[in-house]
Amino acid sequence: MKRIAEFLLAFIFLVNISVSKSVKITSIKVPPTYTKERVNELQPIELDCQYEMESNEKGFVLKWLFNNNCIYQWIPSVKGFAMGPMKTKILINNEISRGTERPGHISISQPDWNMTGEYTCLVQTFESADRKSAHLQIIVPELTFALKLKHPSDSFSKSVNIFCTVAYVFPKPVLLITVNNQQLDGVLIKENKDKDGLYTIAGRTEISKEKLDQPTPISCVFYLLGTNYTKRRETIFYDHTVVSTTVDPNKEEISSAISRLEGSGKLP
């Protein structure tokens, strides 16, 4: 039994050696989110892949994949070059940095919403390979976000309409309407996606004035799926049928008030 156990331990040791990776990715840097501001000059997306390799490894290749499609490749003989759908977007950094090349570093210029996805760094030699992936979410902030209350033309109507719209945003927004911090059910939602991939969502609902205090906070909230991006708009509801009036006192009322104050000793 002892010999069998020793044999098994030796076998496991040899298997571990045979499957160990001689080329290994030590770090991968992909930003989890990138917000595409509405400006002409956007900051590029910076990707970086660091690796270790044994000196005896041959046939080294480094690749960047986007959703499993190769967009960049680096090999010692020809350095780095871009390919595929991002060929014109990728800026390659083959400069010497602190005495070492950076084959795994690339910049993506003028990012757009459709660059959301999984980015993978793949390193391989004739003997071994390694890969690591990370997800990048592009956010396009809304162009407009509005909340409006509309009373029916009948001033004695017992209801009020609530409208909320968020326009030209990515990824898809989820829109909620709340009254007194309570989410309303039965909100009619209309959705549109334009040719540029941006979403516009409009919500509409009608609520009885009997359910609204005076005053009542009404809010519209939206958040973008898969992100921490959220925005809120709030307004205060007052019933337009409630009219506040001010009546000027007549001379007799003024004189009576002065007499009462004089009698009480409150006038100087």
Task: Please name the defining characteristics of this protein.
268 residues, mainly beta, six-stranded mixed beta sheet, four-stranded antiparallel beta sheet, elongated
Describe this structure in words.
By secondary structure, this protein is mainly beta. The protein has two helices and 20 strands. A six-stranded mixed beta sheet has the order 2-12-11-4-5-6, with no helix packed on it. Strands 1-3-10-7 form a four-stranded antiparallel beta sheet, with no helix packed on it. Strand 17 and strand 18 form a beta hairpin. The longest helix is centred in the N-terminal third of the chain and has 18 residues, at 2-19. The chain is elongated, with a radius of gyration of 34 Å.
What does this entry show, briefly?
With about 270 residues, the protein is mainly beta.
Main β-sheet, spatial strand arrangement: 2-12-11-4-5-6
Percent of sequence in beta strands = over 45%
Cα separation of the termini: 113 Å
Give, in order, the helices and strands: HEEEEEEEEEEEEEEEEEEEEH
Number of E strands? 20
Radius of gyration: 34 Å
Shape: elongated
Report the uncertain regions. Answer: 4-20, 95-99, 241-251, 264-268
Query: What is the percent of helical residues?
Result: 10-25%
